[in-house]
Amino acid sequence: MPEDARARRRNGTGLGVLLALVSAAVLLTALPDHHRDGGGTCRARAVTSWAADARLTAEFARYGDDDGRADDWTGGDGTHSVRLPDGRVLWLFSDTYLGPVHGPPNPVGEPYAWRDPGTPLVRNSAVVMSREGRLTGTLPAPLFPDPAPSLWRWPVAARVEPRAPGSDRKVVRVLLWTRTAGQPPWIYGVPTATEVATLSLPALRLEGITTALDQRTVADPSRRVLFGTAAVASGAWTYVFGGDDGRAAARPAGRAYVARVPRGGLGEPGAWEYWDGSAWTVRGRPAPVLGDDRRTGVGSAFTVVRDGGTYVLFTMAAGAAGLTTVSSYWACAPTGPWHGPARGLDPSLPSAGAAAYNPQAHPELGDGDRVVLSYDVNRLDSTGAAAKQNLSRNVSLYRPRFVTLRLGRPAP
Rounded CA gap, 239 and 34, in Å? Predict the structure, then answer.
């Protein structure tokens, strides 16, 4: 081949590479905002190792077994947390047992500490942990009163925000799920509304509750969306994740949704925007970002964390493994696309017949290399009086357990 032809080919190849790079840059620039979240490099992420966090698990066992007061927390589920400006951690729980703990052994000779059968059950509670990591007290419970007969509130994610835009004074915003008593399959209540409560600082007194999203106009309860299972800050926004109760409609898993508010704006219902599948909208119907009713999906309570520029979602696995296995997904933006599921971990259970549920991340307890994750434990093979009897006979069944995990590139 003549030398000038070789030169033209070399130059043409270099020009082609240059054009390809320019085209790729233009394409990335032109991608919609929901595919360009920013804030770091996005890489595939999955659980690479994990271990039980015996210290945290034991602290909740110690505090729950202390029978010095009759109005103290002895067990609960729906475990969420938020670090306060003075270093304390506020722990939020849904259905909660109060009162003393006895034993072991229990009245039928089993080697478990036990509660009185008439132990009070309240719909929510909050426990304060010192900055040194010791649980110190239960706030008057229930902290969030029932809005009406047959309605109740379960607290979920919480964040510290300015009392008003630009204010130096801080408050705690707590997202609440309001549910209404229902008939089977709605034994855990019919989804009703997402609310936002404001707690004062440092006293943690309830100042008010406002409705962020009322779902009573959605006729099919399985399509009602409650937001707040996780709240993740990124740039100028707080992304609030939610789900539907697809399991109550006999689907193998529910679907995940996402809303966003300007950082500091959780308490302003008019500032909420919902992802409708193609854009953020104030009044549009939220569209799922994860869940195909078959292989992929989430439990009604799941959690999301950020690892650099990557969002990582943890949930109980879809299908039969959903009572024993935590799976994970990852995405470069809150709206997806979400990749997975990948097997995360099989958390330990205290006894035969027990089930794990509601995995929740606690970023304020981890560091740059590890994530602290809690999961709740219960016996799900009974309901009503039988379920309460099981939980009274073995107090360890209704308390959070903790693991510490590390994230990295998924195995090929």
Answer: 12
